[in-house]
Amino acid sequence: MNRGTARIVTRIYPRAWRGRYAEEFTYFLEEEHRGMRAILNVVRAAMWERIFPTVGGRMEQNIYSFGSMLKKPSAFLPLAMSVGALATVAIAAIVAAQHGGHLGGQKDEGTAAHMWQLLMTVQVPIVLWFAANWLRRAPRASFGVLALQAGAWVASLAPVYLLHL
Question: Do residue 28 and residue 70 come from a single domain?
């Protein structure tokens, strides 16, 4: 790859990454003789670096801290599902209040109840997966995340129980 193309391709990476690796990476690319395939691989890696940075990002953080633990999908998905379940109950309650306390002649519980049940049930295996994977590695941060998940679960369950929905 020629020097100009190597410099252009290197500019795709984030500034912090370029500050640390640009010179040696440009030299490496100049020595690479694969052409378009190498350019596509570098562009893909640069996009990945912009999403998940290694310089000033994950590599320099404690991966077992509460904040980094909360970024894991098995940690934040149950929280998002609990918030979604709570929003479903709130929206259903608002709609019911606007229609005189009932939603009409429904023969079953209704769509909102089914959505709430799905959201509350599907998060259980995700929480178990999180606990199985992380409690041994980082017990302190894992207990914090599990406590947050339990609190969100109870917050979603409370209106259903208290309002007899």
Answer: no
pLDDT at 126: 94
Say how far apart CA 27 and CA 1 lie, in whole Å.
10
Phi-psi region of 13 (alpha: psi -120 to 50; beta: other; left: phi over 0): beta
Domain of 41 in residue numbering reads as 3-60
Predicted local confidence at residue 150, as pLDDT: 93
Q: Nearest-CA neighbor of 83 among 164, 149, 147, 127?
A: 149
The single-letter DSSP state of residue 165 is: -
Q: Taking Cα atoms as reference points, which of 127, 129, 124, 134 lies closest to residue 69?
A: 134
Mean pLDDT of 66-78: 87
Say which DSSP state 110 is in: -
**Domain stop point among 43, 60, 77:** 60
Q: Tell me the C-alpha distance between 121 and 7, whole Å.
A: 51
CB 66 within 8 A of CB 145: yes
Q: Evaluate the CA torsion angle 102, 107, 113, 115 in order and state its sign.
A: negative
